[in-house]
Amino acid sequence: MIADVVSITGPRPLRGRRRVPGDKGMSHRALLFGAFAGGETVLTGLGPGDDVARTRDALSSLGVAITGDGDRATVSGRGIDALHAPDTAIDCGNSGTTMRMLAGVVAGRPFPTVLTGDESLVARPMARVVNPLRAMGAEIEAAEGGRAPLVIRGQPLTGRRIALEQASGQVKTAVVLAGLQARGTTEVVEPAPSRDHTERMLVALDAPLQRIDDRTVRVTQGRPRPFELELPGDPSSAAFLVVAAAITPGSDLVLEHVLLNPGRIEFVEVLRRMGATIEVEPREERLGEPVGTISVRAAPLHGERVACHEPIIDEVPALAVAAAFADGVTEFHDGAELRVKESDRIGSVLELVTALGVGAEPRADGLVVRGGTPQPATFRSHGDHRIALAAAVAANAAPGTSTVEGWSAVAVSYPRFLDELEAIVAER
Ligand code: S3P
Question: Would you say the CB of residue 169 lies under 6 angstroms from ligand 1?
Answer without folding.
Answer: yes
